[in-house]
Specification:
A hairpin with a 2-residue loop joins strand 4 and strand 5. Helix 2 runs antiparallel to helix 3 and helix 5 packs antiparallel against helix 7. By secondary structure, the protein is α+β, with helices and mostly antiparallel strands. It folds into 2 domains: about 120 residues, 2-Layer Sandwich (Killer Toxin P4, Chain A); about 130 residues, 2-Layer Sandwich (Killer Toxin P4, Chain A). The protein is about 30% helix and about 25% strand. The longest helix has 18 residues. Bound molecules: 2-acetamido-2-deoxy-beta-D-glucopyranose (NAG) (3 copies). The site of one 2-acetamido-2-deoxy-beta-D-glucopyranose has 6 residues, from strand 2. One 2-acetamido-2-deoxy-beta-D-glucopyranose (NAG) binds next to strand 2. Keywords: Repeat, Signal.
Length: about 270
């Protein structure tokens, strides 16, 4: 019953969250989400031992991951948990806090408590558990899209132009081979100035700061594929990620984050 309620809540693959008036710095809790999945053959009847293993792994995960920002744990051959804090050098304490809070969402009674696989995330970290170490087909293709309006930015009133979206896709795609080749961290960033907005009657340009980061236990090829797929999400309906917005595309093997600098002339209409 709890699961059904959770599933209803989280049914939409595309989550658009707007937290107006909050700064979109990593880990400030401006959004949170979770998704539980299981094969149709998964039976709650033989869940007890698996669940105990998952709970133990999720309990260990925050302190295992916090010092380096990532950990991949296993219990025997049947339970796996991974956690990552977003960014290059996330402070150990905030990484620990983020992973603890997000892992708790998975272990809570109304979390993914009868599920075969599950993930939960916030703006600072991503936690995943499963009964295998391989990526499921659902996880391979699913992406959670979130946009956060930065402090001082007006919520934009119209969707991005196709040209702006195409630019975002291209600059995110360029991060794929770089992240894949970045040994250990599997992370790449870029800053692109002078990106034409050409949206909603707005003219002028914005600066886009982009980051692609993969789960560190994945191969370079998996990382590149994950970033490319996430990049393509930026070209799909219905973003509104012009000036003053941070866009996240979260996947099971990595994520993209794009910060669009506040575009001054958009502020004219601010109340
Ligand atoms: C559940 O238990 C049955 C019978 O012991 C077993 O055949 C099946 O593989 C188990 N399912 C899972 C997903 O572990
Ligand atoms: C999961 O598989 C990857 C290779 O795909 C490996 O690097 C990693 O260590 C594995 N994780 C665990 C916990 O076994
Ligand atoms: C690593 O970088 C090289 C050279 O830029 C590129 O050809 C290759 O595709 C990259 N690796 C991956 C997995 O993307």
């Amino acid at each position: 019953m709890a699961i059904a309620a959770l599933e209803r809540l989280l049914l939409t693959l595309v989550l658009l969250a707007a937290a107006v008036g909050r700064h979109a710095a990593s880990g400030d809790g401006s959004f949170y989400g979770a998704k539980c999945t299981q094969a149709s053959t998964w039976s709650p009847a033989n869940n007890t031992k698996f669940r105990a293993n998952v709970l133990a792994l999720l309990g260990r995960l925050p302190s295992a991951a916090a010092p380096s920002g990532f950990a991949s744990l296993r219990s025997g051959s049947a339970a796996f948990a991974r956690g990552i804090c977003f960014g290059d050098q996330p402070p150990t304490q905030s990484c620990l806090d983020c992973l603890s809070a997000v892992a708790k969402k998975l272990t809570d009674e109304d979390g993914c408590d009868a599920s075969q696989r599950g993930a939960a995330w916030s703006d600072g970290c991503f936690v995943h558990f499963a009964d295998t170490n391989a990526t499921s087909p659902y996880e391979e293709t699913s992406r959670y899209r979130i946009q956060v309006v930065q402090t001082g930015a007006a919520a934009a009133s119209s969707k991005n132009s196709a040209a702006f979206d195409a630019t975002l896709v291209a600059l995110a795609e360029r991060l794929a081979p770089r992240a894949a080749n970045a040994s250990r961290l599997l992370l790449a960033t870029s800053t692109t100035e002078g990106v034409p907005l050409a949206s909603g009657g707005g003219s002028g340009t914005t600066t886009v700061r982009a980051m692609a980061q993969c789960m560190r236990d994945r191969s370079p090829a998996d990382c590149a594929r994950c970033v490319q797929r996430s990049a393509r999400e930026l070209g799909k309906c219905c973003w509104d990620v012009t000036g003053g917005v941070t866009a996240y595309v979260l996947g099971y093997n990595g994520h993209l984050r794009l910060d669009m600098e506040v575009f001054q002339s958009r502020l004219i209409g601010l109340k």
